[in-house]
Write a structure and sequence with these properties.
single chain, alpha/beta, 8-stranded parallel β-sheet, 8 strands, globular
Length: 264
C-alpha cells in the first residue's frame, strides 16, 4: 500500500506470462498485475464471462510472483462468484497465494445486465474488505464506462461507496475525459485512484496523470495487444514469403538471461 500513498504513486503494468513478467521486472517496475483479458485470450476464452476459473487465475498470478519476486495485483473480475461469500473466499485464496492486491469489479458476466445493482456491488466490495483484514490491497472497481453506461454521477456514487466500505484503491476504467477523471479523484480523496492508461478521449503522459492526482496507472491488456500486433505483422510477412521480416525479434540468448534471473 505504501507504493500507492507515496508522492507520484506507481506505474503497475500487466503481464500475461512468465517472460513478460520477467521483462517488466528487469525494466525496474516495482509491482505488476495480471490482466484478466490477456489471460483469457491466451487460453482462447472471453474475458468477463466467467470462462476463466478462480483456480486458473490464482495459478497464473502465483507464477508471475514466483518468477519475479514482485508484488502482484490480481485483476480478478467480479471476484469469481455469485455471492458475497464467494467473493470473500476468492480474497482469502488470493491472500493464501501470496498476492499483494486484488481487484473486485461490479460486473456480472451477464451481457444483458453487465453491471450489478448498486447495493449488491457495494456488499460484494465490503465482503472483500472484511475477508482481506488488511492483508491484501483491495481495489473496488466500477465498469460503468467500459459497459456503455456513461454516468459520471453513478460512477462517483459507486466509488465513494466502495471507499466507505473500506476499499484501499478505487478504479473506473476510461472516464470520458480529463475533467471527469479529476472529478473522480477529487470526490474520493484521499483514497488512491487507479487509471487504465488514460481518459477515453486522449492518451496522457504519466506526468500528466500524476498531476491530475492519479496514484496508480495500469495498462490492462495493452502490452499484450502490442505484442500480438508485432506477431500479426510477422505472420503476414511470413505468408508473403518474407522470412527475414518474420523472424526478427528478441534473441533466445536474451530470453535465457531473463529466465535465469527468475526466482524459481
Amino acid at each position: 500500500m505504501a507504493l500507492h500513498t507515496r508522492d507520484g504513486g506507481l506505474v503497475m503494468p500487466n503481464a500475461w506470462d512468465g517472460l513478460s513478467a520477467l521483462m517488466l521486472a528487469d525494466a525496474g517496475f516495482e509491482a505488476i498485475a495480471t490482466s484478466s483479458a490477456a489471460l483469457a485470450t491466451t487460453l482462447g476464452r472471453s474475458d468477463g464471462r466467467h470462462e476463466v476459473t478462480r483456480g486458473e487465475h490464482l495459478e497464473h498470478a502465483r507464477l508471475l510472483g514466483r518468477l519475479t519476486g514482485l508484488p502482484v495485483n490480481g485483476d480478478f473480475e467480479d471476484g469469481y462468484g455469485d455471492t458475497p461469500e464467494d467473493v470473500a473466499a476468492t480474497v482469502e485464496a488470493a491472500v493464501e497465494s501470496g498476492l499483494a492486491g486484488i481487484g473486485i469489479e461490479d460486473t456480472s458476466g451477464d451481457p444483458e445486465q453487465p453491471i450489478r445493482h448498486f447495493d449488491e456491488a457495494v456488499t460484494r466490495v465490503r465482503s472483500a474488505v472484511d475477508a482481506a483484514k488488511g492483508r491484501i490491497v483491495v481495489t473496488g472497481r466500477t465498469d460503468n464506462f467500459l459497459q456503455g453506461r456513461p454516468d459520471l454521477d453513478d460512477t462517483i456514487r459507486r466509488l465513494t461507496a466502495f471507499a466507505e466500505a473500506g476499499a484501499d484503491v478505487l478504479y473506473a476504467p476510461f472516464p470520458p475525459d480529463l475533467d471527469a477523471l479529476v472529478a473522480i479523484v477529487t470526490a474520493v480523496a484521499p483514497t488512491p485512484v487507479n487509471v487504465l492508461i488514460s481518459p477515453a478521449d486522449t492518451v496522457l503522459t504519466v506526468a500528466e496523470l500524476r498531476k491530475a492526482g492519479v496514484k496508480r496507472i495500469s495498462v490492462g491488456p495493452a502490452l499484450y495487444a502490442h505484442a500480438m500486433d508485432a506477431l500479426d505483422r510477422a505472420i503476414k510477412a511470413l505468408a508473403a514469403g518474407d522470412l527475414a521480416s518474420a523472424t526478427t525479434g528478441i534473441s533466445f540468448e536474451r530470453i535465457g538471461e531473463l529466465l535465469a534471473r527468475g526466482t524459481n
